[in-house]
């Protein structure tokens, strides 16, 4: 059964009243690693765009699984040192978290030619000195790493905020697996952010998709138009009689060895556990499917930024469905 994408419930819409405060803006900082209550709302200077930068008023950002991991920084011992060397040994180097955003351009530097004031945009702040947990952010118009593009007209700002991290990762993995029409694809962890995009993209590309998720997510995953759902809590998917051209692990919980029995001899196994390197081409393909209404971000819950601790507590459970949005402004 397929439910019209535009009919989905996007959760409650937080209300806002006059949060802008002269030259100051609100940002969410974490000055030490730990539980969600290390996140605090602070006043900081609103950044000023350099000549090649745009200033974006952030409408929404998200809580990704990456955000909660960086905040907690409780990686297994073997990964802890390398991660801490990169992000800060004793305390976080980049104190404003947030990996994706949507918003409206408020000002542009004198050399900016590709965007104008008033444009709706989405972006990932990859390699920038701050993340997207702030009312304003400056982003260079040319990105070596990370993404910046106009917001698709058929997405709300809250939906658009949740498109990039999960969407380009899913597109990267499916390209790596050489997805094409008619292939038999199994997506493990179909209810997460990457999983929900992977199911929609693979279906849109004409693959026949078996989705593995828990029973509590089956209505959501069914709405993406999959061929079959397997509840991993009651059924052993590795015992399926079918064999697959592609198995995509969207939650990093299975290995190629575990699924050997259901892989065709020339099959691909791809996983979020591997290094991913999505490109502008992956973004282009994703935006095309969004414009064709074949892919749409699935929003589980929307929290106002003042409830950031509750939002992180929720994502910490590991049970979020699709994406969790943090709103800095009312959607339009
Ligand atoms: N490499 C990259 O570039 C990249 C990018 C984004 C994410 N990631 C990684 O990808 C992983 C997934 O992130 P995400 O944000 O997409 O997912 P997520 O939203 O954090 O995944 C949560 C979902 O996983 C399901 N789940 C939990 N345990 C499961 C299990 N044992 N088997 C199957 N499903 C299970 C939960 O549903 P139920 O409770 O109903 O099962 C929930 O809906 C994370 O490890 C993240 O760090 C990597």
What can you see in these coordinates?
With 332 residues, the protein is of the alpha/beta class. It contains 8 helices and 14 strands. Helix 4 packs across helix 7. The longest helix has 13 residues. Bound molecules: NADP nicotinamide-adenine-dinucleotide phosphate (NAP). The site of NADP nicotinamide-adenine-dinucleotide phosphate (NAP) has 27 residues, from helix 1, helix 4 and helix 5. The site of NADP nicotinamide-adenine-dinucleotide phosphate has 27 residues, from helix 1, helix 4 and helix 5.
User: Would you count the extended β strands for me?
Assistant: 14
**Average of per-residue pLDDT values:** 93
Apparent shape: globular
Ligand inventory reads: NADP nicotinamide-adenine-dinucleotide phosphate
Main CATH class of the largest domain: Alpha Beta
Provide tags for this entry:
Rossmann fold; 8 helices; alpha/beta; 332 residues; binds NADP nicotinamide-adenine-dinucleotide phosphate; 26% strand; Quinone Oxidoreductase, Chain A, domain 1; disordered N terminus
